[in-house]
Predict the 3D structure of the following.
Amino acid sequence: MLHHKGKEEDPSKKDSRMRIVVVRHGQDEHGYRGGWSQRGLTEEGKMQSQLLAKHLSNSWQPLKFLISSDLRRARETAEYISQEMELPIHSSPLWREMNNGELAGMPNSLAEQLYPGLFASSLEMDEPYPHGESPRQFFQRITHAFEGLCEKMITLQISSEIIVVTHGGVITILSYFLNGSVWSNKEPAIPTNAASIHEISYQEGKWLFTTQNHIDHLSIKG
């Protein structure tokens, strides 16, 4: 069962354990369809990513392995973390947002003109975007990627303290999956602010969220 806490622990006081610190990329450009868009971070998103990187380095150690979606907005966020923590980036398409095919990066006005009313939530589970994924394919890609990563951590093929830079839709699927809840594209999204932190820990033989949507670092000025 997903673990919810009444009061969030100070991350700096957590014991080192097998964990995956999942972060959402910083703010990207408004007015465009996301998905597999290759549009990058805004100036606000770059500032958020800098604050995120410093916070991870100062308060969430040890973290020894950095994975990122290879979409531009995630990769740019990961670059700030990489520089601050001196970790190489391991890019992977497995951690991308849902593949929205022909709509990727399209201005919202044009998307509404060419594909009126077409959004991830309007699809049937086995209905793909034009030249993209269906919701079921997206779910399967993310859960398989997560299970593969966990297996490598458990068998010590890679570090047991990992950062994954990814997207809001990915984090929502992981939340439903680890909670044992049935996910469909009609279900509400989990809160995932830009540059937010979500920690998944391995405890008593199972993976569960121990922190969700941590954004205290974004209120820090200077």
